[in-house]
Write a structure and sequence with these properties.
Blueprint (H helix, E strand, L loop, with lengths): L1 H15 L3 H7 E9 L2 E4 H7 L5 E14 L3 E12 L9 E12 L2 E11 L4
Parallel strand pairs: 1-6
Antiparallel strand pairs: 1-2, 3-4, 4-5, 5-6
Helix pairs in contact: 1-2, 2-3
Length: 120
C-alpha cells in the first residue's frame, strides 16, 4: 500500500508543479477522471495540468478499500491550497477515491473521483 500512497503523492506533485509528462507517466491516458462533477480521460485531464491552480496539498486518512494482484482501490482526504485568488475554487477539503491497475509490472491510475467536503 505504501507504493500506491507514493504514487498518489507523485500524481499530486505533478499536478502542483504543472508537469503534464510526469502526470501521464502514472495516470493512464484512458483513465476515467471525475472531478467537480466533470468527467474526462486522463489525457484530457493532463491538458488541464498547466492551469491546475493548486499551490500545496496534504493527504490524510489514506485507506485501501479493495485489493487484488493487479488492482488496488484507495480513498483519502486531500486538503488543497490555491496558488492565486482567482483559483480559489481549487482550495478546500476533498474526498478522493482512486483505482490503480498493474499492467506490465507497472501501476497506473485508471479511475479517480473527488468530491468537495462542505462545511469544514
Amino acid at each position: 500500500m505504501n507504493e500506491i500512497y507514493e504514487l498518489e503523492r507523485k500524481m499530486w506533485d505533478a499536478a502542483v508543479s504543472e508537469d503534464k509528462s510526469a502526470f501521464l507517466d502514472i495516470v493512464s491516458q484512458t483513465a476515467v477522471m471525475v472531478c467537480g462533477g466533470y468527467r474526462c480521460t486522463g489525457a484530457e485531464y493532463a491538458d488541464f495540468i498547466g492551469d491546475f491552480g493548486v499551490a500545496a496539498y496534504e493527504i490524510s486518512g489514506f485507506e485501501m478499500t479493495a485489493e487484488s494482484d493487479d488492482m488496488i482501490a484507495v480513498h483519502y482526504i486531500v486538503n488543497t491550497k490555491a496558488d492565486r485568488p482567482e483559483n480559489a475554487d481549487m482550495a478546500g477539503k476533498f474526498h478522493v477515491a482512486s483505482v490503480w491497475k498493474r499492467t506490465g509490472g507497472k501501476w497506473q491510475l485508471v479511475f479517480n473521483m473527488d468530491s468537495r467536503i462542505v462545511g469544514e
